[in-house]
Amino acid sequence: MKKPCKKLLLLALTGLLCLLSACGKSVSEKNIMDRLQTDQAPKIRWGVKVDTNLFGFYNIEKGEVEGFDIDIAKELTKRIAGPNAQAEFVEVTSKTRIPLLKNANIDAIIATMTISEERKKQVDFSDIYFNAGQALLVGPGVKLKGVEDLGPGHTVLAVKGSTSAQRIKEHAPEAKVLELENYSEAFTALKSGQGQAMTTDNAILLGISKENPDYHIAGSTFTLEPYGIAVNKGQDDFRQAINQGLKDMVADGSYQAIFKKWFGDQAQEASIANDVKEGE
């Protein structure tokens, strides 16, 4: 009787391992659109940042996360899963967002994530939803219209060691670049007249401008680093639904309304309203 018992135990353990393996696979690879269409209370779990001004930040008074990314996600949730669907927000950072997505802790990432060839090896991206890129911030009385106006008599403020500091030297080789420790120091230097312009991503500059209305972005971006919504590979139906949702939002003006709510009339080149591109 001992041998049959051992065989039965081995078979039971083997079956359990297979079941666990199958369950694990189904959790991480289950078609999200199938889940949303069959659940009585559909919910999309979005990975978002909670410390990025204008895009995703925690409002202490309201006790909730707000921002451009948040509003876009809420609108997409309704369009993809129905008016009663819920958007759930999970805090992510630049380091944790892809691991959380791969482990199925979240369904999608909408967190100022630049579309890049390296990241495409791990995830799939939606169409562009924000045309991010490097730009210039100037104060009152400064007549710079863009990076092309920078010359020997200008000083540009940048964060020490940043890619922005390197790129401005390539795009305005005659201008002097003064590098500071962080964005706060760079903006303080701009206000004190140590330079005529500050440079970094337009997304960051828009946040500074929102809090300091006398300062505005001069001209257009001079690099292209667009943001996309990331989903797991194999979730083509979900990705296509996101893309269709973005197009419909532009078509009926919902996207433009959200953009204006957070960014006003500045940096219109960052809006996709006039340039909704097909995802790869």
Any descriptors?
280 residues, 39% helix, D-Maltodextrin-Binding Protein, domain 2, 5-stranded mixed sheet, alpha/beta, disordered N terminus, elongated, 3-stranded parallel sheet, 2 domains
Description of the structure:
The chain is of the alpha/beta class and 280 residues long. It folds into 2 domains: 41-131 and 226-263, Periplasmic binding protein-like II (D-Maltodextrin-Binding Protein, domain 2); 133-224, Periplasmic binding protein-like II (D-Maltodextrin-Binding Protein, domain 2, 3-Layer(aba) Sandwich). 39% of the residues lie in helices and 21% in strands. The protein has helices at residues 2-29, 32-38, 68-81, 97-102, 163-171, 183-191, 202-211, 236-252, 254-263; strands at residues 43-48, 51-52, 56-59, 64-66, 86-91, 108-109, 123-130, 134-138, 155-159, 176-180, 197-201, 216-218, 227-232. The strands form 4 sheets. It has a 5-stranded mixed β-sheet with strand order 10-9-11-8-12, with helices on both faces. Strands 5-1-6 form a 3-stranded parallel β-sheet. Strand 2 and strand 3 form a beta hairpin. Helix 3 (68-81) packs across helix 8 (236-252). The chain is elongated, with a radius of gyration of 23 Å. It starts with a helix and ends in a 17-residue tail after the last helix. The model is unreliable at 1-5 and 7-26 (pLDDT under 50).
